[in-house]
Design a protein that fits this description.
Blueprint (H helix, E strand, L loop, with lengths): L2 H32 L1 H5 L1 H25 L2 E7 L2 H4 L4 E5 L6 H10 L8 E6 L8 H7 L2 E3 L6 H16 L6 E4 L6 H15 L13 H10 L12 E8 L8 H6 L5 E11 L7 H25 L12 E5 L4 H32 L1
Parallel strand pairs: 1-7, 2-5, 2-6, 3-4, 3-5
Antiparallel strand pairs: 1-8, 6-7
Helix pairs in contact: 1-3, 1-12, 3-5, 3-12, 7-9
């Protein structure tokens, strides 16, 4: 390997580290600065927090975009669907899934700030965890021990956070973990319950989905706040080799296009019982398996497999100027906060 690529990987890594060191403290400092508005208008505070949150997601999106990891959308139009309240269900393959979803959402102004993420509790203890916690995302506990408790907590979270903050979109990973970690367990469960054996995705878990439908589904008492559409999202990497967070940070993997396919379902048409809903989800993931299998075998994404009118793949575009302005905002903010802190520290040192 020549020296030039290594220098490029190193500079990218330093840039990403600096983004974390600068942007996250600035995000928290701005929330502290605007926190008095909460006493006057909680709505205004939430709107400001959502703007800062969307800018943080744009920083992450810039990492993917600048490395050449493009996304091609097909199927239903997310631009049209965003006018509805959505439950988005992506398949889960690697640590790159969340950054790639951020890249999709930030391509649409006003989308990413209205998203509530339902993620594994481990994410709470990462560098981005404090931002998600401040935004009001939900961290779900994995394992049998905490499953019932976490579902009760999710129900409370939806009523105490999702609804009051007027979020419009929920992101839930039904598989409950990465493909390579969940595959063996999924196969064991499939054999035990005489269910299909899936290779490119795993059997979905529907406990959280049951709770969401119970609180926000059709016919519930949350008038005007019900989830209207389910968006099944299929993320397909070339040859079935998932991207990972290390590649996004360093950019050492060659640029390529990841396919993202959307299928929409009206919540009113979903089965009404947990058992029937589980069967519906299993069938949905069987179809997802068929789509992924054909793509991996042929190299051509079968976007019309289940809908002849599905939109063909189109690469998502981002505005480099917007990325630049957001970076400048955080750089100027960090200088401003640093100057203020040094001034305060100098005042106290003189006083003592």
């Amino acid at each position: 390997m020549s020296l030039v690529p290594v220098v490029g990987y190193t500079l990218r890594t330093i840039w990403v580290l600096l983004c974390n060191m600068v942007c996250i403290p600035c995000y928290l400092a701005w929330l502290v600065l605007v926190s008095p508005t909460y006493l006057v208008s909680p709505w205004l505070y939430n709107e400001l927090e959502q703007v800062f949150f969307s800018w943080m997601l744009s920083i992450v999106s810039c990492w993917c975009w600048s490395a050449g990891y493009q996304l091609a959308e097909s199927g239903a139009s997310l631009d049209h669907l965003q006018h509805h309240r959505l439950l988005i269900l992506p398949n889960h393959q690697s640590t790159a899934d969340v950054p790639l979803l951020m890249t999709i959402f930030t391509a649409r102004i006003g989308f990413s700030n209205k998203v509530m993420w339902i993620m594994d509790r481990v994410f709470k203890f990462t560098n981005f965890g404090v931002i998600s916690w401040m935004h009001g995302d939900f961290f779900i506990r994995s394992g049998k021990a905490g499953r019932l408790t976490t579902l009760v907590e999710l129900k409370e979270h939806l009523t105490s956070v999702f609804l009051p903050k007027n979020r419009r979109y929920l992101v839930l990973f039904p598989e409950g973990g990465f493909l390579h970690k969940r595959k063996a367990i999924s196969h064991q469960f499939a054999k035990k319950k005489d269910l299909p054996m899936l290779e490119h995705c795993t059997l979905p878990r529907t406990g959280a989905l049951d709770v969401i439908m119970d609180v926000l589904g059709p016919g519930r008492h949350q008038e005007g706040h019900q989830i209207e559409k389910i968006v099944d999202m299929t993320v397909a990497f070339p040859s079935g080799h998932p991207l990972d967070l290390q590649s996004i940070v360093t950019g050492w993997r060659e640029p390529f296009v990841t396919h993202v396919h959307y299928r929409e379902f009206d919540c009113k048409d979903l089965p009404g019982t947990p058992e029937e809903l589980f069967s519906w989800m299993v069938k949905l993931y069987q179809e997802k398996e068929e789509m992924l299998d054909k793509y991996y075998k042929t190299g051509e994404f079968p976007y019309q497999m289940f809908d002849r009118d599905a939109l063909p793949p189109k690469v998502i575009s981002h505005d480099p100027l917007r990325f630049l302005l957001i970076h400048l905002f955080f750089i100027v903010s960090s200088y401003m906060f640093y100057t203020v802190l040094m001034s305060i520290a100098g005042h106290f040192s003189v006083s003592t």
